[in-house]
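Reading a protein record of the kind used here takes little practice once its layout is understood. An example of such a record is reproduced below.
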Amino acid sequence: MTKSEFQDLQKRAATSGMTLKMFLQAEGVAYSTYNYWCRKMKAESEALPIAPISIRSESQWMTGRGTMSGIGVPGVMVAFPNGVKAHFGQGSEGMLMEVLEKSMCHVLP
């Protein structure tokens, strides 16, 4: 079983209207296999570190507090603690929000 197959199995189990035990029997999946994947998925989600990031606005770029090679750049830059910077140019705010939502889905309810 792959991770995506397990996630699909969980979705189907949740909407099946059956008890988990009955659902797994109908699917031909051992309860021990299901528990293995539950533990594996939980361990993966717990292993993801949460790191502080810095987000600067366009006005901070233009005042010199945020520059790329000394040139003020409009938009938003996300600066990670390891030194990696991701710049989202003016007009790409929707893309930035999508990236942040997807990257934080394991932390946010």
